[in-house]
UniProtKB/TrEMBL annotation, chains A, B, C, D:
Domain Carbohydrate kinase PfkB: from-to ranges: 16-317
Originating gene: iolC
Any Pfam family hit: PfkB
BP terms from Gene Ontology: inositol catabolic process
Full protein name: 5-dehydro-2-deoxygluconokinase
Record lineage: Bacteria, Bacillati, Bacillota, Bacilli, Bacillales
InterPro entries, per the entry: Carboh/pur_kinase_PfkB_CS, DKG_kinase_firmi, Myo_inos_IolC, Myo_inos_IolC-like_sf, PfkB_Carbo_kinase, PfkB_dom, Ribokinase-like
Annotated metabolic or biological route of this protein: Polyol metabolism; myo-inositol degradation into acetyl-CoA; acetyl-CoA from myo-inositol: step 5/7
Amino acid sequence: MTYVSFPDTRKMDFTAIGRLCIDLNANEINRPMEETMTFTKYVGGSPANITIGMSRLGMETAFIGKIANDQMGRFINSYLERNGIDTSNVVTDDTGAVTGLAFTEIKSPTDCSILMYRDHVADLLLQSREVQEQLIADSKVLLISGTALAKSPSREAVFQALAYAKKHGTIIVFDLDYRPYTWTSAEETAVYYNLAAEKCDIILGTREEFDMMETFDHNPDHSDQVTAQKWFDFSAKIVIIKHGKEGSIAYTGEGLSHQADSYPARVVKTFGAGDSYAAGFLYGLMQGWTIERSMAFGSAAASIVISSHSCSDAMPTVEQVNDYIERCNRGEITVS
Amino acid sequence: MTYVSFPDTRKMDFTAIGRLCIDLNANEINRPMEETMTFTKYVGGSPANITIGMSRLGMETAFIGKIANDQMGRFINSYLERNGIDTSNVVTDDTGAVTGLAFTEIKSPTDCSILMYRDHVADLLLQSREVQEQLIADSKVLLISGTALAKSPSREAVFQALAYAKKHGTIIVFDLDYRPYTWTSAEETAVYYNLAAEKCDIILGTREEFDMMETFDHNPDHSDQVTAQKWFDFSAKIVIIKHGKEGSIAYTGEGLSHQADSYPARVVKTFGAGDSYAAGFLYGLMQGWTIERSMAFGSAAASIVISSHSCSDAMPTVEQVNDYIERCNRGEITVS
Amino acid sequence: MTYVSFPDTRKMDFTAIGRLCIDLNANEINRPMEETMTFTKYVGGSPANITIGMSRLGMETAFIGKIANDQMGRFINSYLERNGIDTSNVVTDDTGAVTGLAFTEIKSPTDCSILMYRDHVADLLLQSREVQEQLIADSKVLLISGTALAKSPSREAVFQALAYAKKHGTIIVFDLDYRPYTWTSAEETAVYYNLAAEKCDIILGTREEFDMMETFDHNPDHSDQVTAQKWFDFSAKIVIIKHGKEGSIAYTGEGLSHQADSYPARVVKTFGAGDSYAAGFLYGLMQGWTIERSMAFGSAAASIVISSHSCSDAMPTVEQVNDYIERCNRGEITVS
Amino acid sequence: MTYVSFPDTRKMDFTAIGRLCIDLNANEINRPMEETMTFTKYVGGSPANITIGMSRLGMETAFIGKIANDQMGRFINSYLERNGIDTSNVVTDDTGAVTGLAFTEIKSPTDCSILMYRDHVADLLLQSREVQEQLIADSKVLLISGTALAKSPSREAVFQALAYAKKHGTIIVFDLDYRPYTWTSAEETAVYYNLAAEKCDIILGTREEFDMMETFDHNPDHSDQVTAQKWFDFSAKIVIIKHGKEGSIAYTGEGLSHQADSYPARVVKTFGAGDSYAAGFLYGLMQGWTIERSMAFGSAAASIVISSHSCSDAMPTVEQVNDYIERCNRGEITVS
């Protein structure tokens, strides 16, 4: 059955709003960053990664965001364009802001961390008046990312994008993507995440992220059912709660929960797993696939990305995902 | 007919959240402030004034707010208590914030202005975690004031109060009270005013305030009907749009508009007219009166306040309002 | 003997730079401010008070400062002008800053406190480029006040004024006037106070203020001699250290210390004592009087001011000081 | 003759205070940064580079600064220690500050630029109370760098270090190193640079940097003689004014100017030229060499560094400098 009805006649499949930044991935891995000497530059940021992923999967995509007026900003813009993403609503900052940076440290496949530069970054300076209503009206899906809610004026830009999406019936996806270091307090985060989530059709996040959103609620057992039902009482059709290694569960309004097997991977690092999963899952849903098949497709896309050095650059095509699934099914890929 | 059903069995009639400050009213009036030498101190702030007004009218009232840990803060708290207002949710700041000040200048009855001190004020430091859910659950009405949305963390405190009110079925009144000097931009204001207004049952504001809220909308003729209908599509039951000297119009969901005559006054200054009107109108509504009768009662209360030197201190009792109406009807009070 | 040689041929006797603000003095005294209802407005700020004092004593005076573009700022400017003070270097702020306020509370003649409004005040926004070199070159004395060092850009304006004064041989007086609430830390204060004091000819402050300046020094016994000698090694000729009720001691380069009796007063409040003392003392010094006589004259001026409700408005003329001294000598004035 | 007498019996030759940061040098050179994909990490910051240079030249060195509590900060600290620099006064920040970054772009040997990350950096958070008086008392030379004056509390830490150096007779070197992007205005910069320069024995800067310092002065012809004389009237013994390609001129108190030939180089980039020059020149001066010989030695050190990919890592030993000079003298090195 169909849980979400996408407005099929629109020219743009997928538009995301939010963070655009630079990943600087250590070339020397399996050691602390104190000992790495060289870094490779990639476009990063969760909504950027998902959009690149959707574009690689053949979707018509666009991005709403703000870049610094410097070499890093121009690199981001040209990378998006080379990947077929519409950048007509990617605005250039004129106040001297910088591009957010994420230096990644891969001590081991399971011990990865990030050193962030998030002061005075351009992406958080997107203004509500800079969001193009027509682009959202022309899109089947608008994806918002929680990090863009962290500061004014980006926060207001996201709420205005939500208002446009509600007005025009664009399906709204909320990727929680909670990064505590850009927020003042968990309470502040919970208030704005809740205000945004009320308006969303599909919500994806970890159990810990939903716990943060329930700061003012009563859910002592951290029940997924209680969490999901809260959002069904607003606008949600699908709520996906991720439980780390135990896998993700998709809840739908009828009280059903859905799960899918994941695929093995020779893990290099864990970064990018969620973004590639989100792209694969949404792609499947927009093809009219079942939730289970969409989840499996997302899992395979995630396995490809975590086997690679980069996030954005490793986002697979449909053929690559299908090929990976087939190789897994033939037993050719096993956990390293 | 009844437009709003109040949850009648609750012990608290009316609770407001927001600004608490000090008015310093020039004792020497009808001259510029450069020439005034002495000032008298009153409790001020729109939601504080309305709450004092409701209390004078015999309602059980409470306030949710934050005061400075100084002589001004303690004066405010003791004044509220002397007026029978529950201050159990009036929190004292511990960060060195000051009390907001409003020096009033009365050059003539129609030429009044305010000199504001709003930097680092305690009232804008109320935190979401400090808002008592039980107090809102026990109240028939929660009034929010737009100025409390101007800055974090007070902004989040208001949104959390709205969440509690929605959860418990408390009737929500939104007094727009837009003061540009505490806001970054009209766009920022519009985004948060709209997010708040979506959840409100009764909205009161001037045509100019509603225009600001429509920054991102299309209402080229500034049509009251278009404005009111927008909010009826969310939660509103009554939208009151004030047109200055031409009077106020109340819109209700059925497409009806309501108006009432105003009462003459020997005007000293115009400050406080809106607050006393709001108190009188809400009082009437909570008595089950018609909208017209409630509006008339509010108008009479406003006429009393603008004939006086203070705002909060001049808020009338029911007897005083009725007496004023009778004297007007007998022709004893005419415009000065 | 003469300790300081003033450049006598200049047209301006005395120019001060720094804080201009408004005192709001409680009219109802001998009670906590929670219970005072009316306030009277005066010009305030230590360097403003001293300048008004010097002008009342017949000196040619000027002020270098910044006022808010509002009624309070205009009141200050007109009050200075009415008192014969040159305001050609009193600049009006154009950024929306406010006038600093000081609400005074007089619980008893010996228990007085101040409630300050110092956020976003105009006086701390004076810029170095706004300081007129010619005015300082034309003045016999430049007085700086420590509060003006508390924040940029006022801090830089004071250092630039000091540079001009050194260049032109203007005698520099430093009134320490340390107010902790406008400073980040005692260390920050000590650094800038020391940098400024190195360039000054006359330094006046309390023992506690000099202790703060010695944060990084070694003066375990809080020895006045050690303190004074430090500044004689730089530029100082006279260092006055105030010991509250025990009186003030003036140190001079030759290792001498000077003291003078004080005069009785029927004390209303203690505010303004230091400012009137400074004006009287400097007046005497500029007349070529001995240090002892100058100190006595300052003490008499102080006794007059603390017997009055205001600070600035109570600054006496030469005749009033002389008359007060005579009445004290005749035993007509005794401690209340 | 000897222009500066160093206090020769101290155990530490050279201590610097100020900026510690990370250079990220593009590995792919001669192209815009939009097209560079990988970067190599080095320790950077002008005073850090000079200290590393002094250490390579065999001097006993120490550093006074603050590092972030992260992988970048720990890398800096361990690099300094590996280079024999005393880090006992390198403090670790505990407020979540980041390490300053400088991405270098080498479009051509003569077209180099830097993309700076200077928001919320640890080095500007050094506090005056963290500066160790004993270390400065034990050092022959204290070098201060202008960038450390850009913000509080680092600004106060530098002024306190200057106070300690004056107290103990440590020779003070001021490397102007003016970077406009961290300053509010040229006026603010001029005020603090002048306050610092008054106390310095040796001042090195470009003509443009001295012009900035003369914002409030009268030197319409940008005369080096006027500039140098200003500082001789305070504490300076040597003032070096750099005129880019036309070379540097050293002025000494007796009205003499000194110049030295520079050495050819196969230039990769121009970064680091000034830092290696400063290290070489000061090394020579501390050996008791003539100013001309010291300048020549500095020039050769600079030629070595600009022929290399890095700054700090390329700082030469005495043998390398002497060898380079000999090879130049034999005509083995010519401009590329």
